[in-house]
Design brief:
- The chain has 6 helices and 2 strands.
- Strands 1-2 form a two-stranded antiparallel sheet.
- Helix 2 runs antiparallel to helix 6.
- It is elongated and about 40 Å long.
- The chain starts with a strand and ends in a 13-residue tail after the last helix.
Length: 104
């Protein structure tokens, strides 16, 4: 992994991808649309799935995180704590899809 600083939002991340996982801007400074753009996953759908089915990991499955979805499923969202934290993080738009793109 390579540590990079985003030219747009100044977030430091360790990634091999060519764009910032926070805002989607390419590390060469081009626009988010050229660097991967936004996700095909809907923000509202992710929030609703997290609120109603987050304890079963459905929100993580929806976003493409199959491994984390299975873990949430077998721990029942760590007895609700993990589900609550994920709900807040998704609501704050801190959880991108599995490809690092921000939710639409």
């Amino acid at each position: 992994m390579v540590q990079r600083i985003c030219p747009n939002c100044s977030v430091v991340s360790e990634t091999e991808k060519g764009f910032c996982p926070e805002c989607g801007t390419s590390y060469d400074g081009s626009s988010p649309q050229l660097a991967g753009g936004t996700s095909d996953k809907d923000f509202t759908t992710a929030v609703l799935l997290s609120f109603f089915l987050g304890g079963l990991g459905v929100d993580r499955f929806y976003l493409g995180y199959t491994g984390l979805g299975v873990l949430k499923l077998i721990t029942f969202g760590a007895f609700g704590v993990w589900a609550l934290i994920d709900f807040v993080l998704i609501l704050m738009r801190k959880v991108p899809d599995s490809e690092g793109r921000p939710l639409a």
